[in-house]
Amino acid sequence: MLNPRPSVETSFKIKPAEYRASDVALLGKHLWSLLCPELNESQRVYVSATSRQGTSHGLFSVAFWAALGEQQPILITELVVSALSLEAYEAGPDALDSWLSDEQILRQGDICTFTSEPMINENGLGSNHTPLQYRLDMLEPVIQGYARKGETRIILTLDIPSQPDEAGSDSDAEGFEIDEGFLAPAILSSSQNFMSPTSENKPMTFECQPMAESKAHPYDDCTLYLRTTDLGRVGGLNGDWVVVHSPGSNHHRLVRVVAADYFVTSNGVVQGSPVLLHNICPTLSAFAPSNLSLHPSPFGSRQPTVPTAKAVTIARVTSPISADRTYQSAFLGSLKAYFSNSKRLVKQGDLIAVGLNSDVDNTTFDETEQPEVQDVDQKYMTPPRADEVVFFVITNIEHDVMSGTEQISNHDSYLDSTLGELGCWIDPSITRLIQTGGEHCRIPDVGTYFHPGDHYGKLISLCSATLLRDAVDYNLHLSVLLKGARGTGKFTTACWVAQRIGMHILEINCYDLVGENDTKTEGTLRARFDKLEECSPCILLLRHIDGLAQTTQALETGKESVLTAVLRECIDNVQNSWRISGHPIMVFATTAEADRVPMGILSCFKHEVAFEAPNEAERHEILRSLLAESLLAPDVSLSKLATETAALVAGDIANLVQRAESTSIQRASRISNCSEADVMAAGVAMTAADFETALDKARVAYSESIGAPKIPNVSWDDVGGLAAVKSDILDTIQLPLEHPELFADGLKKRSGILLYGPPGTGKTLLAKAVATSCSLNFFSVKGPELLNMYIGESEANVRRVFQRARDAKPCVIFFDELDSVGVMDRIVSQLLAELDGMSGGSGADVFVIGATNRPDLLDPALLRPGRFDRMLYLGVSDTHAAQLNILTALTRKFRLDPELDLAHLAEQCPFNYTGADFYALCSDAMLNAMSRKAEALEAKLALLNSQPGLDDHPHPLTSQYYLAELASPEDIDVLVSQSDFDLALRSLVPSVSQSEMDHYAHIQQRFSRPPE
Length: 1012
Description:
Elements: H1 29-35, E1 42-49, E2 60-67, E3 78-83, H2 86-100, E4 106-107, E5 111-115, E6 131-140, E7 144-145, E8 153-158, H3 180-183, H4 197-201, E9 204-210, E10 223-226, H5 228-234, E11 241-245, E12 252-259, E13 269-272, H6 274-280, E14 290-296, E15 311-317, H7 328-341, E16 344-346, E17 351-356, E18 388-398, H8 411-418, E19 424-426, E20 432-439, H9 454-466, E21 479-484, H10 490-501, E22 504-509, H11 510-513, H12 518-530, H13 532-535, E23 538-543, H14 562-581, E24 585-591, H15 599-602, E25 607-611, H16 616-626, H17 638-644, H18 650-672, H19 676-682, H20 688-702, H21 723-738, E26 752-756, H22 763-773, E27 777-782, H23 793-807, E28 811-816, H24 825-838, E29 846-852, E30 870-873, H25 880-890, H26 902-907, H27 915-946, H28 959-966, H29 969-972, H30 978-987, H31 994-1007
Parallel strand pairs: 3-8, 9-13, 10-12, 15-20, 21-24, 21-25, 22-23, 23-24, 26-29, 26-30, 27-28, 28-29
Antiparallel strand pairs: 1-2, 3-6, 4-7, 5-6, 9-14, 10-13, 11-12, 11-14, 15-18, 16-19, 17-18
Helix pairs in contact: 9-10, 12-14, 16-17, 16-18, 18-20, 23-24, 25-27, 27-30
Protein name: Peroxisomal ATPase PEX6
InterPro entries: AAA+_ATPase, AAA_ATPase_domain, AAA_lid_3, ATPase_AAA_core, ATPase_AAA_CS, P-loop_NTPase, PEX6_4th_dom, RecA-like_PEX6_r2
Subcellular location: Membrane
């Protein structure tokens, strides 16, 4: 008699189906000893879900191998816990430390239940034990480990979940949802279900959608998925065979239908593999939804009575990969593996897609030989990693007609099946496969599907016009230039378009074409274009087209390069090839620096598509896609990350995620001081601090000389005074942000604000505070940074500044020292053009703030309405109350002496002190206090060193050793006193003289509004 297996009841989580990352669960010693009393190295463990009432009826069971590893649990340094009831919150501070510190394994997201001590009521009787529940919201530095009393910091919060209605208060209300899809597989076989003539004569029509990924179904190549309710409308059961055809077509075939409510979310929709949908309807449009008709077959769930093919002729679809003989043995091996796994139901004209690993060691075949598939070496049967797809087409099927012996009510469908009209089986033990030459045809999209964006949708629209039947007669050959910064997705978008329209893509790096002279470059370019005819229909992608401008031969003034004429001729020859073969060829080119591409080369392309930095919504989608399978801490907000990553392109965001992941692993390894294996087994979640660190590194890495936009961290507490100016600026900037509908109907917004006044009055600080309060990115540019000695470069710098601001919108551009560029005609003209372009409704989320000490030097055109038309004067404080506000803001992080009176100090200051002067005053006072503290420390050390040495301490004592080992808090704290300020005040010289103040007062009268 077998010994009973030990069982342990515990809690675990089931992650969604799309979560594919591996997971590790650490078990405590007690739980492992219960599961494995003999402490074997590995043990087969069964996990079954039971109802919450503790019944033993398993709803499902999973078996797996659990191994006793050498990983050690990691100490949790910080633990954020949420109490799920008020009683738990009140009992937590006293007992939670002891409850969680018994070296049990804690895991982020778990709910722990503890029992409180019995309460004594008025009668002296103890009440029942009250269960207290806590949720472990966040663990640091890893997501699972153990807590230790005195070393783990526990943060307790209150989070009472909403109470369900009394009608639904049963504990099993949140259990498994049992619907018709749950019962469908258990119904009797549909072979006994005889359909009525009504259901047979009225096929149901559905909208077909391609699946984004394989569902690992054994009949995935002949299976359509739909909702359970739609399955009932068809008149079939789960797993039945039905007849499908496209409306208006006479081609029918058999497919299996499976209920899949978990990913088919809409009624009236069927989903299938892209290859299957292409085989059902070869004219399936990629630009408009198509329909399919389904009606029951006479076979039900039994294997259809269709003939088995004796011989099948298969031809490869020519593409850059299939036309390369070095991969011939590899893709033939993949084809053999495809048919060897199981019987396949195919029809003449079907496409077959097989994966190919392009890194395997391939053998070159003689192109005159046409090997049979059975002769391929066994080592190519299962490629370890498929990174390419090769398509084959079935050109001929030889089979015998089956004799009908069954009594079937639907004679038409049964007759079609026996004649092979609905398909034939390919049995690897019977059918002989013969591979012939190549065929030219379009292919379905077998990649990941994406919703069309701006550039993607434009390319799809252009390509769809070229694919029309009469496009070649109208000379609609397509050539497109994709321009944009590196990392914006030009190459990726081109690949998506090729997948969507069913065409191959041939990639050429133009820098690889450049030879020692133009003659060799011309020969290489012509040879690459000649290869296009073998791969048509296809898209030629010329990457880095600006590389063709790299020539070693000097050109005469006004004369085009030889490569320009060659490129134009090659593109024209593509049109002739299209007329002969009937298969279109499209030419795409990419460049990150369109300014460096000669005008002759640019003229070769009929269309241009500009790629810009993604907006906030697009950045959110990119982050969500990149972090779909990553562990994120609860404090990570994708919305906040999308805002903070303004001006970053898709490539930068991908690099940011990699940096954050690396930072999280380094942080966990540093804090835990454990091996990398232990850290990875415990699991590391990326926190908001990891993303902040990665974002700072990314800004440093990608910032240019003009800076990188970012949201500053300056609050209004850092700004003393300037209340009236603050109100005017916020009224100008907040209105377009909070009420954009006002500007959608043509209302013009103010383009810019000009801050002018004496130096040191807080113009830059004010602009940063405005950007922080409105959550705007801040782009600071000093006027001299825009100047360049080369003609046209200064204007280009201005354009780049505004383009970066548009990429980072909502954004504030702060032009400091505007007077340095406001007198140069060319820069002023470019500034005027950019400001005029922002005054419309489309520019309502980009703001310009200028600062200058000399507004009288600016070009008057900059100060006209629609430009810097709001001028605000920032002067010195003219009251002691305003000076007190400045002193309070500057000293809010100081440790002040209790006897210090800032109001009395402000009364001692003259009225020609600017904000910069007050900053110098406070800095000098802090320096005086630190000097005084240092002198007191030196005196104390001299006294200690004059006495006998202390035990266990060196003699004489140094200041560094004393501060590290012996200093008390009083020795370290620096208090700024009245005497420190008095000393600083006596030595302070105003930065603006009285005569200069009079000059600025005159300027204010000149540019200020006339009194109303």
